[in-house]
Design goal:
Layout: H1 12-18, H2 21-29, H3 33-43, H4 50-85, E1 95-104, E2 109-117, E3 123-132, H5 137-154, E4 159-164, H6 167-175, H7 184-194, E5 199-204, H8 211-219
Helix pairs in contact: 5-7
Amino acid sequence: MCRPKGDGGMGFRVLSKFNNEKCLFHKVFKVPHNVKLLVWRAVNEALPTLHNLFRRKARAEQYLLEFKSAQVRVSRGMAETVRVARWVPPIPNQYKINFDGAVFSNVDVVGLGVVIRDAYGQVIGSLAERIPILNLAATIEALACRRALPFAKELSIFDTVCEGDAELIIKALLDREVHHPEYGHGIHDSLISASEFRVCKFSHVKRVGNIVAHFLARRSKSGNKL
């Protein structure tokens, strides 16, 4: 480009004019838009060439794979949550006591339900009783626990896990909240009973894992003890 004009170059005068910044600036903006777009796409590898199409397909497949992997992780997490909510048997040589309470306002009584099962899930004993109505649901659950522990002792069971779906009551038992004005007396009596066992642990379970005890509590509405 810098060769003499006689040798096929632009010549110094033309080259000086070509290198003028203002002249070059105007020339660039006189280029048609579609040409500028084509140049931009070429620089950014956005042209629909075989190489670029293949690269885009590879990226899309990678994104799809990552999405599917995320869905698998979510579904596994949901499955694990469901498994935690189900009833889980105790370890060998221990028994699990499940308790629950139910309110029957139309007959002014509440129901207490208890079921005791071994490590194989076999029912060792069940109970359904009703008592005069109480005002606080948590108090009903505390009394259900208080009834469940002596029932286990009646069956000569002394290695237990006592489980209910009332998180408030399970926490109160673990924290030994015996002075609570509403259900402290139920917690106190339950802890005294628990001290007479070789092993007595308290644990919380969701309602779906406590459905048998809940059914027994509802069943007590008939007035017949089980």
